[in-house]
Automatic annotation (TrEMBL):
Major role in the synthesis of nucleoside triphosphates other than ATP. The ATP gamma phosphate is transferred to the NDP beta phosphate via a ping-pong mechanism, using a phosphorylated active-site intermediate. This is Nucleoside diphosphate kinase. GO terms for cellular component: cytoplasm. GO terms for molecular function: ATP binding; metal ion binding; nucleoside diphosphate kinase activity. Keywords: ATP-binding, Cytoplasm, Kinase, Magnesium, Metal-binding, Nucleotide metabolism, Nucleotide-binding, Phosphoprotein, Transferase. Its EC number is 2.7.4.6. The lineage of its organism: Bacteria, Pseudomonadati, Bacteroidota, Sphingobacteriia, Sphingobacteriales. It catalyses: a 2'-deoxyribonucleoside 5'-diphosphate + ATP = a 2'-deoxyribonucleoside 5'-triphosphate + ADP; a ribonucleoside 5'-diphosphate + ATP = a ribonucleoside 5'-triphosphate + ADP.
Amino acid sequence: METNKTFTMIKPDAVANGHTGAILDQIIKAGFSVKAMKLTSLSTEKAGQFYAIHKERPFFNDLVKFMTSGPIVAAILEKENAVEDFRKLIGATDPKKAEEGTIRNKFAESIEANAVHGSDSDENAAIEGSFFFSAFERV
Ligand code: RTP
Ligand code: MG
């Protein structure tokens, strides 16, 4: 299992609000390198698959609606201790609780429209990266 990779999405709110460049800049300045990246959008089916773990949660339908509401940027990122360090960089799920200077503190609108996704384990980083990228789409 690789421990130096994570997977991220810049979510529809942040792409629509024009924050893609600033968010990527903050990610790269924090020491992550981009190993794969694309602008794309999620169908209802794909968003449901990606967030299948949250299927029983009360916010699931709203989350799928939100994640299909516009383009997203998906990326595989590399850095030592990538998963943990990236979650520190993005901050808490709820931007009101996200530490000062974190990506969600700066760019998120709400607990749902919270600007970015970050994998929560090395295992999920590998699964999520493969969900979006084939081998020849990565460097
Ligand atoms: P993510 O998976 O997107 O990196 O976010 P996370 O780990 O911080 O949060 P998680 O619990 O995995 O929730 C996934 C996404 O669902 C939306 N959400 N809405 N309305 C709500 O109470 C609520 N709670 C979560 C957010 O978009 C969250 O990032
Ligand atoms: Mg999560």
